[in-house]
Amino acid sequence: MSVELKAVSFNIEDEKFAIDINHVDTVIEYQKTTKVPESSDFIEGIVNFRDGVLPVINLRVKFSYPQFEDKDKAKILVVKIGEKKFGLMVDEVKEVMNIKQEQIEESPSVGGTKADYISGIIKTDDSMIFLIDVEKILSKEEKIELEKVIK
């Protein structure tokens, strides 16, 4: 019996990504964010979410893609690490996928990239999907900065 991973897939530009469903809370429509003074470029801002404030990370900026042409079409994937939640702003959320262990290739170390948040590459019949490790999307320094935004 092969181990299966359930993951939520999403797009940024023409690239496909996926995150383990255990880290996904929900998906919400884009809403205008409130910019946090002196925060990093990739921190889009904060939005009201349930009973609190949700910091939103713009993955286009974080992953060095061109900025959104129309942010209103973006989706926010709400992810959780322990008790902390934050939003990942993406082009669109596609589907929940069942992935077999043998479909996941180890992430190649591409010349000096700092993309250690890519934990593997999922190979499907028609595409390759970057499997993102939510715990590693942010560096220690960025997590500290995000914590300041949350408080």
UniProtKB/TrEMBL annotation:
Protein name, as recorded: Purine-binding chemotaxis protein CheW
Domain CheW-like: 4-143
Organism name: Marinitoga aeolica
A Pfam family per the record: CheW
InterPro entries (UniProt xref): CheW (IPR039315), CheW-like_dom_sf (IPR036061), CheW-lke_dom (IPR002545)
